[in-house]
Design a protein that fits this description.
about 325 residues, alpha/beta, Nucleotidyltransferase, domain 5, Cobalt-precorrin-4 Transmethylase, domain 1, 3 domains, five-stranded parallel β-sheet, five-stranded mixed β-sheet, 17 strands
Length: about 325
C-alpha cells in the first residue's frame, strides 16, 4: 500500500472523523505528543494554532516528525474558516534493507526458496566471487554486484551496510549458513536500527557433511573452528577438551590450511584422551560441489594431510558406530 499511516496530535486521538476515515481505508492511526510536534521544523507555522494547542503545527509536524519530504503542504477543508480539517502529506525516508543470505553448501538444489526470492528482489549483491558466481542465475537484470576476494569480512559487511543505508535492498552472501562462522556476526555487529535486517537461513556445512556420512549428529554435538586467526589457540584448546570430556560429537570447521597445519593433530590428541582409537571419523571435502570427497576413518587413523579449509571433520562420540558403511550416532546411550 502507498499510505503507511495517518498521523495527528495526541489531542485528536479520539477524533471520530479521523478514526472512521482511516479505518475505512485500512490505514493505521499514529498520534504524537504536542511537545514532540512543537520541535518539528515546518514551512508553515501558525501562531493561532500554537496559541490553541501548544504547537505551531499539527498537520505538517505530524507528517514530518519521522523525517522525510513534505509532498503536500497543509491544506484546509474547502478553504473554510475556521477550518474543519487540515491535512499535509509527507513521503517517508526510504528505509534500506539488508538481507543476510545463506547459499548453502554449493548445490543449487539445496538453496531454499526464501533465499531464491530474496536474491531475486535484491538491488545490490555483496559477497565473495565464488558465492556471487553461484547465484547469478537467480538475480534480476540490472542487479549491482559488488564481489570481493577471500578475507576482510569486516570490509565486506561495511560495504553492504553502506549500500543499505542509501535506501537500497542489499543481499550479503555467505556459504553454508550465514550465522555460523560466516558474515552474520560481522554484519549484525555494525548494522544499526536505521536499516532493516533479515537473516535467511541455509544448510550448514556440518549438516551437509553429516548427510553424506549418514547420521553422525544424532545425539548431542558441537561445532568448533580450529582457526586461531580470531580466537586464541588456548581458548580453542579448552573447548576441545570440554567437548571431549562431555562426549559430544564434534564438527571441526576450518581444520587445516597451508599456514595452519598442526591444529588438527593436537585436536585429535586431545580427543584421544577420552575416546578410543576406533572412534569413527568422517572427512568430507567440497560437500555437494564438484570434486566432492567423502571418507570415513577412525580417530587413530585420521590423516590430517587429506584435510584442507574446504573440509569438515566429524568425530563421533563413544556411541557412534559404522553401520552398513555409514556413520550413525544413536539417539541415546545403551
Amino acid at each position: 500500500r502507498s499510505v503507511a499511516h495517518v498521523a495527528t496530535g495526541e489531542a485528536k486521538a479520539g477524533e471520530q472523523g479521523i478514526l472512521h476515515a482511516a479505518a475505512a481505508r485500512g490505514w493505521p492511526v499514529v498520534t504524537h505528543p504536542t511537545d514532540v510536534l512543537a520541535t518539528v521544523d515546518v514551512p508553515n507555522p501558525s501562531r493561532i494554532v500554537h496559541a490553541a494547542v501548544g504547537t505551531p503545527s499539527v498537520a505538517e509536524a505530524a507528517a514530518l516528525v519521522d523525517g522525510g519530504d513534505l509532498l503536500v503542504p497543509k491544506r484546509t477543508l474547502s478553504g473554510s474558516r475556521p477550518s474543519m480539517a487540515t491535512v499535509a502529506v509527507a513521503r517517508r525516508p526510504v528505509r534500506g534493507r539488508l538481507a543476510l543470505v545463506s547459499t548453502g553448501p554449493g548445490d543449487d538444489r539445496l538453496l531454499p526458496d526464501l533465499a531464491r526470492s530474496t536474491l531475486a528482489s535484491a538491488e545490490v549483491v555483496v559477497g565473495l566471487d565464488q558465492y556471487v558466481d553461484r547465484v547469478r542465475g537467480f538475480l534480476r537484470p540490472g542487479t549491482e554486484i559488488l564481489p570481493s576476494r577471500i578475507g576482510d569480512e569486516i570490509a565486506r559487511a561495511e560495504t553492504a551496510i553502506v549500500a543499505a543505508r542509501e535506501g537500497r535492498s542489499v543481499a550479503l552472501l555467505s556459504g553454508g549458513d550465514v550465522g555460523i562462522y560466516a558474515m552474520g556476526s560481522p554484519a549484525l555487529e555494525r548494522a544499526g536500527e536505521d536499516i532493516d535486517v533479515v537473516v535467511v537461513p541455509g544448510v550448514t556445512a556440518a549438516a551437509a557433511a553429516a548427510a553424506l556420512l549418514g547420521s553422525p549428529l544424532g545425539h548431542d554435538h558441537c561445532a568448533i573452528s580450529l582457526s586461531d586467526l580470531l580466537t586464541p589457540w588456548q581458548v580453542i584448546r579448552r573447548r576441545i577438551k570440554a567437548a571431549a570430556e562431555g562426549d559430544f560429537v564434534v564438527s571441526f570447521y576450518n581444520p587445516r590450511s597451508r599456514g595452519r597445519h598442526w591444529q588438527l593433530d593436537e585436536a585429535r590428541a586431545l580427543l584421544s584422551e577420552h575416546r578410543k582409537p576406533e572412534t569413527p571419523v568422517g572427512v568430507v571435502t567440497d560437500a555437494y560441489r564438484p570434486g566432492q570427497r567423502v571418507r570415513t576413518t577412525t580417530l587413530g587413523d585420521l590423516d590430517p594431510s587429506v584435510v584442507d579449509m574446504l573440509t569438515i571433520v566429524l568425530v563421533g562420540n563413544s556411541q557412534t558406530r559404522m553401520i552398513g558403511g555409514r556413520m550413525c550416532t544413536p539417539r541415546g546411550y545403551m
